[in-house]
Structure formats: structure tokens, C-alpha cells
């Protein structure tokens, strides 16, 4: 699929400002010389853009290691380091958040990443230069396919990360994803879902930018109601902590289509 030319240009950044968070990973974890970091990122972006023109690729959002400022991140690191928990990054793109977790001390052998496209997950090795050292496993799978290879993780996962994922779908399909996530979790209290999504002060369906159909944008209250419904349907109970990020969704196409869109950071915990 090729985006319309105007949207292509809007999502294709010509300059790059790398956050200190990302630069630290690339210099200290990947051992890339400081003067080579930016050229390296441009080269990876060009390689990925040739495969699929996702806005997150053109705008370098695959360099945004958002997991480290999500609610409950300190708890996640502690559980991974001390309790042998298993974590899945669902919709992991290049697996960039997994590298942040590893850098912060999480055992890489207990981390999994999944996305539709194996080629993007493989490009993560090119970006972070860790194919010979990273022990995490990557699974190419469609979350809506009950027979995908994700089934091998059913009932084994303690923590799931979903960043910039739920907001891609309408509310009905979000519920399908939530039910699939529950199958992946161990059937016990303190199962933990963390992530971020594009949200809106006024929740509801929004027309999608790249494709036909709608996507549902939550606010903190609607996100809790959503998980109340999931709990009622599954005989479980969930507490959804959600806060607005200080930043906004700033790409031109997004701001024109979703004038009130903001990043909603969340941690959803099973309490019964």
C-alpha cells in the first residue's frame, strides 16, 4: 500500500532530533559512535520506508523509546529482574522498547516481541546491532488470528506492552484485542498491561487517516469503562490507570484530522 503523496510528504521527516534517551541506548547499548548515530538512523529509516510507508517510519517514531516513561515502568523493571516475569511487546515494530528494557536490566530471554511484519523486527537488529547478543524472541503474528504463533504464549505472559496500538482500531476490534490479551496472560491477579495510545478528551470513533473505517479514541474515564466491560464479560476485574502525556500528537496530518488528539499513557492491572 502506498499513501497519497501529500500524506507521504507530511510523515517523511527531513531532519532528526534524537532524544537523550534514544541517544544513550544507541551509544551505550549499541556502541555506535556519537557522530555516526544520526546517519545510522537515517540509513535504517530509508531501508524500512522502502518496505512500508508507515507514518511511524517516516517520522522516526520508531526511535521513541516510550516504555520508560509509562506508568508502572519501575514496577515492570523490578518484576522482570527479580520475579522472572515474562513480557510481551505486542505491536513491537523494531522492538525498540525491548532494548530499553534490556538496557535497564531486564533479562532478554524473558522478553518477546510480536508484530505483523517479521522484516521490521529483523530491522531492529540492524538498528541496535545486537543480533548476536539479544536473546529475546520475535513472533510474526496477526493478533486477530487465533491460530497464529502467539498461541504458544497463551497463559504464560505476566506483562504486556502495547504502544500506539489500540488506537489503530474501532472499539469493537479493541475489545477483540483485549480478549486475546487475556488469553496470553497468566490467569492470576497482577497481570499488567502498559502502553500508550492516541486519545481524546471527548472519546469516540474517528475517521482513520490512512485507511477507511474508524478508530476509537479514549480518555481516562472511557478507558476504565472499557476494561469494566472486559471484566464483566470474562469474570475478571481490572483497574485502569490512565494519564495524559504532556506532549501532543504533532504531525500535520494527525493535527488536521484529530485536532484534540493527545497521548494517553496507561497501566491496566488485574485486581480480581
TrEMBL record:
Pathway(s) where this gene product acts: Secondary metabolite biosynthesis
InterPro entries, per database record: Meroterpenoid_MTases, SAM-dependent_MTases_sf
Keyword Transferase: yes
Molecular function in Gene Ontology: transferase activity
Ranges where the record places region Disordered: 197-216
Keyword terms, alphabetized: S-adenosyl-L-methionine, Transferase
Family: Belongs to the class I-like SAM-binding methyltransferase superfamily.
Protein name per UniProt: Methyltransferase domain-containing protein
Natural source organism: Myriangium duriaei CBS 260.36
